Amino acid sequence: MRAVPPGSYILRASTQDANGLALTEQIPVTVDADTTGVRLQVQPAVSIPVIVRTESTAAASPGDLAPPGVHAGKNTGVSVHLESRGTPPLVFFSYLEGKPENPQLILRNVQAGKYATRVTAVGPWYVDAVTSGGQDLLQEDLVSGPGGSTEPINVVLRDDSGSITGTVQAGNNTAQALVLLVPTGRVSAEPMIQSVNFASRLQPVQFQPVQFHFSGLAPGEYDLFAFDQVEGLEYANPEALQPYSGHAVRVSVHPGESKSVSPELIVRGSQ
User: What does the alpha-carbon distance between residue 62 and residue 67 come to, in Å, rounded to a whole number?
Assistant: First the structure.
């Protein structure tokens, strides 16, 4: 590699063995002069199966997406992906493989590193628990070691989700609001955002309050923000939201519960 600017880097190597199994390795490298003799010892990447279990509070019907029980991924609508904590980030997605009558949800060729585990499900299910080898992956990172075996990721889905409905009052000449819902107790859960437009009368311009609705929510604690705009705001970063925490509404959602709130509109203007 020629003409490398001075700095700190991650050097990553990827190849395959004779059976098509991915072999990878990465090491940190600091470049401040010509460097020779760098060695990387590639190791087999790991494959991680995903086991999905559904727990329903209602009686199953023939048209249910996935009746209560244990599923390897079939008919659950679950998607799992891993996001590395390193730089540059790595992302690995789950997919179904095997025979159609007995498919297996699996993450293939996961390289060594620390990962946040992201799990999404379709209604009526929400993600209640994600564990692996006794670890709570909603609170902890998944650590994949070079050449090591990783235990299955176990996902539990439930259908007694909650919802949050509310109204945002328009500010002066504010035509839009972006409502941000942030789970506070799950480090692997991503914020949800919803855009709402204020209807107005022709003369004079008077914007009317509008409603928002978040459904399929896992029971727990949430912070709710309503911004006039989020341009330039890293809303997935808790530290970036800290200056606005005094304007957030803390909402506790219990199983099967619907909450109604009216957050204050946070006007960021051209910030």
Answer: 8
90-108 pLDDT, tens digit each: 899 998 887 777 778 899 8
Distance (Å, rounded) from C-alpha 223 to C-alpha 184? 7
Segment 118-145, tens digit of pLDDT: 998 887 788 999 999 889 998 888 988 6
* CATH superfamily entry for domain 162-266: Carboxypeptidase-like, regulatory domain (2.60.40.1120)
Name the token pair of 189. 């859960």
Predicted TM-score (pTM) of the model is 0.72
Q: Where in the chain is CATH 2.60.40.1120?
A: 162-266
